[in-house]
Write a structure and sequence with these properties.
Radius of gyration of chain A: 21 Å
Strand content of chain B: 15-25%
CATH topology of chain A: Amidase signature (AS) enzymes
Order of helices and strands of chain A: HHEHEHEHEHEEHEHEHHHHEHHEEH
Number of helices of chain A: 15
Strand content of chain A: 5-15%
Distance between the termini of chain B: 74 Å
Strand order of the largest sheet of chain B: 2-6-7-10-1-11-12-13-14
CATH class of chain A: Alpha Beta
Number of strands of chain B: 16
Number of strands of chain A: 11
Number of domains of chain B: 3
Shape of chain B: elongated
Oligomer: heterodimer
Number of helices of chain B: 15
């Protein structure tokens, strides 16, 4: 039985009805991992022993007649920048190649409390810098829909694992689109919550003011369930928002009547693949047919968002990544003195893209350039945020493509960082504004999934869930399963 | 040429909160190496800081006590530089919006009161401690890092360049220390590094406005170092200027043993700290009502206490200043006086015998083996005439070493003063009989001779005879002869 093809909420029913056990389910997923991992390469670390122990504990609870939570016994994958106590957390980097955290991220504590089964730690672009997993310090992950294409990034391992049946659900992190873009490329639901909605404690920082953890799932219902678990205030994260977390499954309503949708014309100008554009437009027409109201809106500062992001994120990264110096943890190359040790260690174990961003950020913060670059970028960020504030005075949801194209070929943009950066052009403004957004499948082009992005106002994930659920229930894009072949 | 010295001080003080500034680790000094640590202060991947509210409260108290404006909106910033005692390779500090600005304090040197401006007070985290394998950095081939101190809360208090002598700098630092002690926010132990001082110093022709090129002097680890280091630097700069030379902007380190300072780095080598607003902390919004609450709850400060001692007990300005410069000393004074001892006598004893003994042993008054009540009781014995001043000094010695009460010592050693005239007359007569020459001399008008006879009488009485009575009885008995 191909249990690995089901959603978490379907499998939960199978567990509570005792149709299958958590151990059976876990073994089934690991059998799938064994069958496809050599082609997909989702995982940096697999945690078989602890996974089976977790599954056994859930089975014991079921046997004793105890109630189990919705994700109990359901195998999931965690992006390898989320700290797991006693389990290697590499952040996709050689410099943390042997790093075993002595503590759990807050989200991990929450998931453990729900008795989840962790299959492993998923591959990613090194320190979450990239959009294809080609920047992983270990290997490139392949897109299960076409193994010659990228799964997107930086949460590419998480998305590929879920798409290939190597996990039922996953957590990713999103700094400029790193949940939504791989979800789009792999035909999945990926949601970046409002900045501060999910604790960042234990998420290895890339750009602290933009990073946010979120779910990657097969459908909107699973997305709501994972959100219910991971959201909420955390005293260990000063930037986490102290607001009541609603039950997101209450927003799983198949109804968009009266929902006001805004279509920002600036997102539909150049560089968008015509097939992607067609799919998005079709989806909008369908939502209107279902009762939503649609209007064109303008977000005039969109074109500057990418440039601002590539000042702010590298600036924060240059500071966040300074700690990887070989002194007290991580790998070290000995040197003739401390400076030499720093240089040799960082030269040897940090990848090219990480070095590029550290240099960009260091430059942007340097005396004499700080105001012209970093400060200017912060001002642009404010303008971008104001675009969203203004838009949400009139609409409930903004719809755009998630990415300008479908998944591209491995190696196609590897030597063209600017082309790679442009893949994030629709997702980056969302991080700058700190608002929530979800990517859902809305069609295929040449056999590859297309992602539609819905953006809502801060803390209004419920509207995203409702709109996404309605679209999903009136289509069946989420029901397909990746072919694990090559699309000709 | 006649030069004016211009000095500004940067004082760092460790706050005595129980836990560190951004995590729950203990701040205890002297713990086993790397035991007061956690993922947060070790800067492990993924950790986040959370501000210790007590640190903000202490900072506001200091700001208010230094007559500063408390900024309603302040924030933390990252100061980026690589150093192995800094696990994140940035220090979380405050850059352009510190918690407190625009304050002042008054110092007094040679009876002249001078107001010194306080530019700012800001919060930051302390770094760890490097333990080098060799005797000096340059002779070491490795170093170990102790992270216990990493994340201990610090306040940096920056003065305006308002001081014009090493004495003023010292007085300023002593005043800062007194205020921090009175506020009960820091241990202020320079020897343990809980109070540190860097000085900026430059010279300019007297009467001119523009500031000269400054040097920053580090490693001033005691009040003595502050004064000596600045005196040295003023002379060094004056010599250069007198020879037509130019001062270069640099950081120098003071060598207390050699009594000289050495160049550490010049301006060209200065770090570019690439300040960045700390994205992991939210801005600090201070409620003005809370500031007023803190202002209302401030304890009596050194200047007010000094005035009270002058007004209530008639102590001199000098004595009052000496006693109130240390809160512990002033507390000792007040406690002693509350035990009904004469205030002026307590003041004399504190600045005399007590200070002498404390200095000899290099301990603080908090560790004084003689309690305020014990001192009061000793003074009461003098006032009552039970013992003389001289005997009291030896009783104090005994109290210091044995911790016994004065009365017990006096009893045990039979030190009660002899004020019974018949007992004294017996000794006096014996002394007169044994020293006929001195008696003759005295009767011949040699007033000095009585001194010798008094001495002999005191000796015979083992110091216990009442000296005034000895004097008058000697005169009486010799005239009657």
């Amino acid at each position: 039985m191909e249990l690995f093809k089901y959603t978490a909420h379907q499998l939960h029913q199978k567990l509570v009805s005792k149709e299958v056990s958590a151990v059976e389910l876990t073994k089934n997923v690991f059998a799938r991992v064994d069958a496809v991992e050599k082609d997909v390469k989702s995982y940096i670390t697999q945690t078989r022993d602890s996974a089976l122990a977790q599954a056994e504990a859930v089975d014991a609870k079921i046997k004793q007649g105890q109630a189990i939570s919705i994700l109990a016994g359901i195998p999931g994958a965690l992006k390898d920048n989320i700290c797991t106590k006693g389990t290697k957390t590499t952040c996709g980097s050689q410099i943390l190649g042997e790093f075993i955290p002595p503590y759990n991220a807050t989200v991990v504590e929450k998931l453990i409390a729900e008795d989840i089964v962790m299959i492993g730690k998923a591959n990613m672009d090194e320190f979450a810098m990239g959009g294809s997993t080609e920047n992983s310090g270990f290997f490139t992950t392949h897109n299960p829909w076409d193994l010659t294409t990228v799964p997107g990034g930086s949460s590419g391992g998480s998305a590929a694992a879920v798409a290939a049946g190597q996990a039922i659900w996953a957590l990713g992190s999103d700094t400029g689109g790193s949940i939504r873009q791989p979800a789009a490329y792999c035909g999945l639901v990926g949601l970046k919550p409002t900045y501060g909605r999910v604790s960042r404690y234990g998420l290895v920082a890339y750009a602290s003011s933009l990073d946010q953890i979120g779910p990657i799932t097969r459908d909107v219902t699973d997305c709501a369930h994972v959100l219910n678990i991971i959201c909420g205030h955390d005293a260990k994260d000063s930037t986490s928002i102290n607001a009541i977390v609603p039950d997101y499954t209450k927003a799983l309503v198949n109804n968009v009547k009266g929902l006001k949708i805004g279509i920002p014309r600036e997102y539909f100008v150049s560089g968008i693949d015509p097939e992607v554009k067609r799919a998005i437009n079709k989806a909008i027409e369908q939502l209107v047919a279902l009762g939503a109201e649609c209007q064109e809106i303008s977000m005039p500062h969109t074109e500057y968002a990418l440039s601002a992001y590539y000042m702010i994120a590298p600036a924060e990264a240059s500071s966040n990544l300074a700690r990887y110096d070989g002194v007290s943890f991580g790998k070290r190359v000995e040197g003739t003195d401390i400076i030499d040790m720093y240089k040799k260690t960082r030269s040897a174990y940090l990848g090219a893209e990480v070095k590029r961003r550290i240099m960009l950020g260091t430059y942007a913060l340097s005396a004499g350039y700080h105001d012209a670059y970093y400060l200017k970028a912060l001002k642009v960020r404010t303008l971008v945020r104001q675009d969203f504030d203004k838009a949400f005075e009139n609409v409930d949801v903004i719809i755009t493509p998630t990415a300008p194209t479908t998944a591209f070929k491995i190696g196609e943009k590897a030597n063209d960082p600017l082309a790679m950066y442009l893949q994030d052009i629709c997702t980056i403004p969302v991080n700058l504004a700190g608002v929530p957004a979800v990517s859902i499948p809305c069609g295929f082009a040449g056999g590859l999934p297309i992602g539609l992005q819905m953006i809502a106002k801060p803390l209004d994930e419920e509207t995203l869930i409702r709109a996404a659920y309605t679209f999903e229930q009136n289509n069946d894009y989420h029901k397909g399963f990746a072919t694990l072949g090559e699309v000709k | 040429m006649d030069y004016e010295i211009v000095i500004g001080l940067e004082v760092h003080t460790e706050l005595k909160t129980h836990s560190k500034i951004f995590c729950g680790c203990s701040t205890k000094f002297g713990s086993e190496q790397n035991t007061n640590v956690c993922p947060v202060c070790l800067g492990l991947p993924g950790v986040l800081p959370v501000i210790n509210q007590k640190v903000v409260e202490f900072a506001v108290r200091v700001g208010v006590a230094l007559n500063c404006d408390i900024l309603p909106f302040s924030k933390f910033d990252r100061k980026n530089y690589y150093y192995p005692d800094l696990p994140k390779n940035f220090q979380t500090s405050q850059y352009d919006l510190p918690i407190a600005v625009n304050g002042y304090l008054d110092i007094q040197v040679d009876g002249v009161v001078k107001r010194i401006g306080i530019t700012r007070v800001h919060m930051e985290e302390d770094a760890g401690k490097l333990v080098h394998s060799g005797a000096t950095i340059s002779s070491s081939d490795s170093a170990l890092v102790d992270y216990n101190r990493t994340g201990v809360p610090l306040l940096e208090i920056v003065s305006e360049p308002d001081m014009s002598s090493a004495e003023e700098a010292r007085a300023y630092l002593e005043k800062i220390k007194a205020i921090l002690e009175y506020l009960d926010v820091s241990d202020c132990k320079m020897e343990e590094g809980s109070l540190r001082c860097d000085a900026n110093i430059s010279l300019r022709p007297r009467g001119t406005k523009p500031l000269g090129t400054k040097a920053e002097i580090k490693n001033l680890n005691s009040f003595r170092s502050v004064q000596r280091g600045l005196e040295y630097e003023a002379v060094r700069q004056e010599e250069i200027l007198e020879e037509g030379g130019r001062i270069i902007q640099e950081t120098r380190t003071w060598d207390e043993n050699k009594g000289i300072s050495l160049s550490m780095r010049t301006k060209e080598q200065l770090n570019d700290y690439r300040f960045l607003p700390e994205p992991d902390l939210v801005p600090i919004i201070v409620d003005p009502a809370w500031v007023e609450e803190i202002r209302g709850g401030l304890p009596e400060m050194p200047d007010a206490r000094k005035q009270r001692l002058m007004d209530d007990y008639g102590l001199s300005a000098y004595d009052s200043a000496m006693i109130t410069v240390s809160k512990a000393m002033a507390d000792y004074f007040d406690q002693s006086v509350q035990c009904h001892a004469d205030a002026k006598t307590v003041a004399n004893w504190l600045m005399g015998e007590v200070s002498k003994h404390l200095n000899n042993e290099g301990i603080s008054i908090l560790a004084c083996p003689v309690s305020p009540k014990q001192l009061a009781d000793l003074i009461a014995l003098i006032t009552k005439g039970t013992i003389s001043n001289k005997i009291a000094k030896s009783v104090f010695e005994e109290m210091w070493s044995s911790r016994k009460d004065a009365e017990i010592i006096v009893k045990e050693k039979g030190l009660v003063q002899i004020s019974d005239s018949s007992e004294i007359i017996a000794i006096v007569d014996a002394v007169i009989a044994a020293n006929p020459q001195s008696v003759t001399d005295f009767n011949a008008g040699k007033e000095k001779a009585i001194g010798f006879l008094v001495g002999q009488t005191m000796k015979q009485s083992k110091g216990r005879a009442n000296p005034d009575m000895v004097n008058s009885l000697l005169r009486e008995r010799m005239q009657s002869k």
